[in-house]
Amino acid sequence: MAVKVYVVYYSTYGHVGKLAEEIKKGASSVEGVEAKIWQVPETLPEEVLGKMGAPPKPDVPVITPQELTEADGILFGFPTRFGMMAAQMKAFFDATGGLWREQSLAGKPAGIFFSTGTQGGGQETTPLTAITQLTHHGMVFVPVGYTFGAKLFGMDQVQGGSPYGAGTFAADGSRWPSEVELEHAFHQGKYFAGIAKKLKGSA
């Protein structure tokens, strides 16, 4: 039976969505792993999104809290808002109370990836503060660490990402994930899927 890895994200302008696509590719590259990408519900009205200049949502299925239980491992992605996850992702986690009550997600591996506007905008605090959600569900946080190798230490260009997970800098929205950031995302997906596969095999 295939190991199911879900990539669950929220993206206003598409930056986190780009990372999610690469993470899915990385997870799918592991033999015996079936990766699926999902987005969480939008909480802002279309009128507000229009005024913000947000593009239409991609053709990606919207996940419900109950569907999380089907996965063997889950990677959550979101942009930062003042150093923490965006309200849309927080609202989704707030809707998982029933799963928390039954501890339905306990023992499942989980990872995090993210987007920030600036270099000091939360490439560490965003995932760090998000870990509380995983902890209350009893999930096993799987950081990517420095397994990406020397490229994580690169100083020749601006790049997002950290030991917590893949990341990108969106700046004013005009900057898109760089080649290195996309490689980091692919690596995280592949690395995480390998861990999820090992955990399921030893269960």
TrEMBL record:
Cofactor(s) listed in the protein's UniProt record: FMN
Residue stretches making up the Flavodoxin-like domain: 5-192
Catalytic activity: a quinone + NADPH + H(+) = a quinol + NADP(+); a quinone + NADH + H(+) = a quinol + NAD(+)
One Gene Ontology term, aspect cellular component: membrane
Enzyme Commission number: 1.6.5.2
UniProt GO molecular function: FMN binding; NAD(P)H dehydrogenase (quinone) activity
InterPro entries xref list: Flavodoxin/NO_synth (IPR008254), Flavoprotein-like_sf (IPR029039), Flavoprotein_WrbA-like (IPR010089), FMN_Rdtase-like_dom (IPR005025)
Family that this chain belongs to: Belongs to the WrbA family.
Record PANTHER family: FLAVODOXIN-RELATED PROTEIN WRBA-RELATED, NAD(P)H DEHYDROGENASE (QUINONE)
Name assigned to this protein: NAD(P)H dehydrogenase (quinone)
Organism name: Miscanthus lutarioriparius
Taxonomic placement: Eukaryota, Viridiplantae, Streptophyta, Embryophyta, Tracheophyta
